[in-house]
Write a structure and sequence with these properties.
heterodimer, A: mainly alpha, 8 helices, B: mainly alpha, 2 strands
Chain lengths: ~230, ~500
């Protein structure tokens, strides 16, 4: 008989709280369907019940067998399991959580500011740019000693800003950012590889396949995106 | 004998027409290329080409799509093996062992096995398709109604719970998480909005392509990036040594078993190559004496998955051509090609356009054969992508995935969803959960719920109705036994003495 670790308890609690939350939310669409007496809730509720049962079963199994409970017959992704590194402490999780919130803050905060201050349409773009710059600066400061957190967050920033600033303007910055986070430090290499990757993507998707990528709507990003489309498509 | 003569006629018709030959080889190369490029798939190519088929003859249009289907399913295996990025959901199980083989310096062997077995599975499937289309279609359609398809989905999920995760519980939780993601959006019977949290985007449901790209491609980049940050990253070892005939011959039973599984999964409308690949892989694990070796770079895993998914391609044409029922996205596009030419796929096609049917059959047969030749040549060159340092490959893959996610519906929110799935996949993998299980749950969730609802309506909401349907009953019992055996194994099997408690 083993004793549950904090991590195992948190993991079990996560699934149980998730199941309880979604079960409670299922009353929002608990309406009758004339031709189907089980309604729209039976299927998700059965899944949630099974999630709760599996979470409890996992806790009981871990309590009985300790770490050995994790050893299945067919464990395909063992090498990915949590490692004893600096990237596995409570402080790291908190730091990473804050980092991951920043891109979502960019998706919400400018709209709130624009709404609260009654900023006219022509000033809204400036609010977006300033918010983006401030949050990106915060990202650099917070992730200074959290390399993995920085890697996890950068693509989310890229995706969150793409609607406003477009693929064409952000992609070169993103390529360089990822290369730096992956350990590349030679400016000449980066200067050579970035245009190559960017060129391949533009040639293949924009020129050859006519894929319409987002141009953004904030000037000068929009102007650049439109110019790229007009030139290469 | 009639079938053989028809096949010869179809072959002559196909290769005596220069335009047909050009379209055939274009489809072969295009399917392989699009299947092998991370972030796009054969569906992207098919979607791009669909409007242009109006300018082709019906024979050429349908033939082009059927060739893309065969070679595209194989092409997705290349990225699954080299980068852990399945080109399509049906290649996901290929990555379970194919990618560890790459990390072990056996990329060439994994790709070689995929080439051989895709060709074998596809050719075998074509032969059976040509010989027995009418009889099999009759049987499958009469024997497999919604209760049987639901039972098959249940059985598939029960078996899949034991694959890919660190424990049975984590496997089961992974699948349930996938099923819950599939619940978001409109319910399949009444069209009620579920779990949309007042967000218009969620009302339409979470699209599976960004989710798959996130869980596989993006999370893999994050996992490798963490390894780089912690100094535990090992660059994949390059190898172009293909497997020997002896090595492949050792897996003959797995090939035959997977071809049979693939064929029967493929013939069922809506199930197709994805479940075929998972079932082929799961059965390989179940029958193997070395279960622990799976997931760590076992060639049998690649062989089983790739044989099964290509075996499903020929079979998927049976319900399409015999009854007009598409088995998946690509066969659904083929219905579009028929309609653009004022034709309806179904039994009448065999009567009114036998030339079309047999040209398509012959083209599929030769497309699968050409996987052997073109596939080996392509593999020899594509394996060299591994020479690119990871710091250059990572931004390329992330941007390809971005374009792939965005191109589906033209929504930037799909790109956000993809990266959120990537982050979630990274943390879930660290904790021993199976991203493949989540994706399988996501894909089969909608089919499962829809067929369950249809089954219950058909059985007048009496669960006892399953007792009168032997195939459904058998599959449900097999599923329950699989789950109970796993639960029993988790609780009551003796654990090794050396493993202490935490």
């Amino acid at each position: 008989m083993g004793k549950l670790t904090k991590g195992q308890i948190v993991e079990g609690a996560f699934w149980l709280i998730l199941a309880a939350f979604f079960f409670a939310y299922s009353f929002e669409f608990n309406n009758n369907i004339e031709i189907y007496k089980y309604g729209a809730t039976l299927w998700p509720r059965v899944i949630l019940l099974l999630i709760a049962l599996a979470a409890i079963g996992q806790l009981l199994d871990q309590r009985k067998n300790g770490d050995a409970s994790s050893t299945s017959k067919i464990a395909a992704i063992h090498e990915d399991s949590a490692q004893d590194t600096q990237y596995n402490s409570l402080g790291w999780y908190i730091n990473t959580f804050i980092l991951l919130c920043l891109p979502f803050a960019y998706m919400i905060v400018p709209d709130i500011i624009i709404e609260k201050t009654g900023t006219p349409e022509e000033g809204a773009a400036k609010v977006n740019i300033i918010c983006g710059a401030v949050l990106f600066l915060a990202y650099i400061v917070i992730s200074w000693r959290n390399h993995v957190g920085a890697i996890l967050t950068l693509p989310l920033f890229f995706a969150a800003m793409m609607q406003d600033m477009g693929f064409y303007a952000l992609a070169p910055v993103f390529i360089i950012g990822v290369m730096i986070l992956m350990g590349e430090r030679r400016p000449t290499r980066m200067a050579m590889v970035m245009p190559l990757i960017y060129g391949i993507l533009i040639a293949f998707f924009v020129s050859l396949l006519y894929v319409g990528l987002p141009t953004g709507y904030i000037s000068p990003f929009y102007d650049f995106g439109t110019w790229m489309v007009n030139t290469f498509q | 004998m009639d079938a053989f003569n028809n096949f010869l006629t179809g072959t002559v018709t196909l290769f005596s027409d220069p335009v047909g030959v050009l379209i055939f080889f274009g489809g072969v190369v295009g399917g392989m290329l699009f299947g092998a490029i991370p972030g796009v798939s054969m569906l992207t190519l098919a979607a791009i080409l669909l409007p242009f088929t109006a300018h082709l003859s019906p024979e050429h249009g349908i033939m082009l799509f059927s060739v893309i289907y065969c070679t595209g399913v194989y092409g997705g295996a290349i990225t699954a093996i080299l980068f852990n990025i399945p080109g399509a959901p049906e290649n996901a199980p290929t990555a379970f062992d194919g990618y560890p083989m790459t990390q072990n310096g056996e990329a060439g062997k994994a790709v070689g096995a995929a080439v051989m077995c895709s060709a074998i599975g596809g050719v075998a499937s074509c032969i059976v398709m040509m010989a027995a289309t009418a009889a099999i279609a009759d049987w499958a359609i009469s024997a497999f109604g919604p209760p049987e398809i639901f039972a098959l989905v249940f059985f598939g999920l029960a078996v899949a719970a034991s694959v890919g995760a660190k424990s049975f519980w984590k496997g089961w939780l992974s699948i349930m998480a996938g099923l819950m993601i599939a619940v978001v959006g409109l319910d399949p019977v009444g069209g009620l909005e579920r779990y949309n949290f007042d967000m218009p985007y969620l009302a339409a449901g979470i699209h599976f392509i960004p989710t798959i790209l996130g869980f596989f491609a993006v999370s893999e980049i994050f996992v490798q990036a963490e390894k780089k940050a912690t100094g535990s990253y090992n660059a994949p070892k390059l190898s172009v040594a293909f497997p020997t005939f002896k090595e492949l011959w050792q897996h003959k039973i797995a090939v035959v078993r997977s071809a049979i599984i693939g064929f029967f999964c493929g013939v069922l409308p809506g199930i197709g190559a994805t479940l075929a690949a998972f079932m082929g892989y799961n059965e390989a694990v179940r029958w193997s004496k070395d279960k622990e070796g799976f997931g760590k770079g076992k060639m049998e895993g690649v062989i089983s998955s790739e044989t099964a998914n290509n075996a499903a391609t020929g079979a998927a044409m049976i319900p399409l051509l015999a009854l007009g029922l598409p088995g998946g996205a690509l066969t659904a596009m083929m219905v579009g090609v028929f309609q653009m030419h004022d034709m309806e796929p179904g039994p009448l096609v065999f009567l009114n356009s036998p030339d079309l049917v047999w040209v398509v059959f012959a083209a599929m047969f030769f497309a699968n054969l050409s996987i052997l030749l073109v596939g080996f040549l392509e593999a020899k060159t594509i394996v060299n992508l591994l020479r690119i340092p990871f710091q250059y490959l990572a931004p390329l893959i992330l941007l390809l995935a971005t374009v792939g996610a965005y191109a589906v519906r033209g929504l930037t929110i799909d790109v956000v969803v993809m990266f959120v799935a990537g982050v979630a996949g990274f943390f879930l993998r660290r904790s021993g959960y199976s991203v493949a299980g989540i994706v399988l749950g996501l894909i089969l969730g909608k089919i499962g719920e829809q067929t369950f609802a249809q089954a219950m309506q058909m059985l007048h909401f009496e669960f006892s109705g399953f007792l009168n349907r032997p195939i459904a009953l058998g599959l449900l019992i097999a599923g329950f036994i699989t789950i109970l055996a796993s639960v029993y194994g988790a609780f009551f099997k003796k654990q090794p003495a050396s493993t202490g408690t935490a």
